[in-house]
Amino acid sequence: MPVKAAKSTIRLLRLALFIGMSLPLLGLALAWHQDRLGVIPEEVVLHSLGRWGLYALLATLALGPLFRLTHRLEFMMIRRQLGLWSFVYITAHLLAWAWLELHWVWTVVWLELSQLLHLQIGLFSWLLLIPLVITSVPLLQKALGMPRWRWLHRLSYLCAAGGILHFFLLARGFRAELWLTLLALVLLIILRLLDAKWLSYKAELQVRREQTPSRK
Amino acid sequence: LYGQAIASWTDGTNEEPTDQALASSYNNFFELGTGKSDPKDNAHFLRTEPWSVRIEGEIAKPGLYPLEDLLAGRTLEERIYRLRCVETWSKVIPWVGFPLADLIRRLAPTSRAKYVLFESIMDPDNLPGQRRPALDWPYQEGLRIDEAMHPLTLIAVGMYGEMLPAQNGAPLRLVVPWKYGFKSIKSIARIRFQETQPLSSWEAKQPREYGFYANVNPEVRHPRWLQATERRLGERARIATQMFNGYGDQVAHLYVGMDLSIHF
């Protein structure tokens, strides 16, 4: 049985997460302001935002398995916020590309988007996140119904896969972090599948138990 | 510089040179590391004294030429050239050097000298980058003989009126301003005149991404990015990349009849 988490603990956890996840963003803004980001600061900002977005997305996906392993409800109580943070960073990454890299020169934005596969994959993955963000509102989550909500939010695995592919397509040479993110996603998918199998097995057991007349 | 006067070249661009500190702190020189600031940080690993260049192949006067001999009796010129990296950043650099054609004429190549192969220093004991297989060392580059003889093609020994810093290819390097920067090989240790087209290091490693010619061309994209625009170091907004890096009226005739999307 899941351990019930105290309300005050949850509130504290959420606050800590909020502060923790705003730090990279503030750090980048400060470093930009102080001109500490090297010769091409635009590139550093662009790449850091993308990285943080992908890491936050993978961390969000890891919360489910962590909950199932530890039965600590806290992991589920911070999932919504962490998921939204990944959207914040990925959106900022997209804006940094259009603004810092291309200065909103639409002809170049269009030229790059129409010709570069990694940009198309990146934009598509970002678009996939939007319905997830909208349905993260509790009211809408209820309106949608839990089974449909769960089904919809499995898109987050596709987003992560898209993000990693986006990264793979533009990286120069061997990058350990690339393979690590891929490994993390594969592990998460395996855990997800194993869990689904285990759940359906348990459900089947339950059904059988109910169907078998009890001996008296 | 090397005890010689520097004449200024009148046909240069009137663009403002890139800040000198920037030009010597953001470099690609894999022998000194693959990060952009590695070459400057590891500059002390490059031993440049004494330096000589082995010149061989289809020429009348092959031999091991000390740097001093290569420079003796030469007028050094200052030339301000745009430098466009294949990675879409660019600089404007006041080089100090002499036309490669002057050297080639003195060496008297035979009629079989159709191409020139250049090779950088090979010194894995000292150069940290050469202890890793980032490229098949030593670094090699090549030019067609008419490209090598072109009056724009330079052997540089200095920049900004000073000797070349290690990270910019000390003590002597090639400068071919209408080609992507990787063609302008640094720290030259060997030059070979030959009949066959040399295989340059990047072409050998990633033939789909880097070709023999590597002429700056906004129309022909790199597989992972476009070449239509570039970022001039020190400036914020991107600018349009020019065909042949803006030297088209002087070099376009070298490539007449060639499909530049195939010979990229």
Automatic annotation (TrEMBL), chain A:
GO CC, any one term: plasma membrane
Transmembrane segments: 12-32, 52-70, 82-100, 120-140, 152-170, 176-194
Co-factor note (free text): Binds 1 heme b (iron(II)-protoporphyrin IX) group per subunit. Binds 1 FMN per subunit.
InterPro entries hit by this protein: Fe3_Rdtase_TM_dom, MsrQ-like
Domain Ferric oxidoreductase: 49-161
Cofactor: heme b; FMN
Cellular compartments annotated: Cell membrane; Membrane
Coiled coil: none
Membrane topology: Multi-pass membrane protein
A Gene Ontology molecular function term of the record: oxidoreductase activity, acting on diphenols and related substances as donors
GO BP terms: protein repair
Keyword flag Protein transport: no
Pfam families: Ferric_reduct
Subunit structure: Heterodimer of a catalytic subunit (MsrP) and a heme-binding subunit (MsrQ).
Known role: Part of the MsrPQ system that repairs oxidized periplasmic proteins containing methionine sulfoxide residues (Met-O), using respiratory chain electrons. Thus protects these proteins from oxidative-stress damage caused by reactive species of oxygen and chlorine generated by the host defense mechanisms. MsrPQ is essential for the maintenance of envelope integrity under bleach stress, rescuing a wide series of structurally unrelated periplasmic proteins from methionine oxidation.
Protein family membership: Belongs to the MsrQ family.
PANTHER family listed in its UniProt record: PROTEIN-METHIONINE-SULFOXIDE REDUCTASE HEME-BINDING SUBUNIT MSRQ
Name this polypeptide is given: Protein-methionine-sulfoxide reductase heme-binding subunit MsrQ
Source organism: Ectothiorhodosinus mongolicus
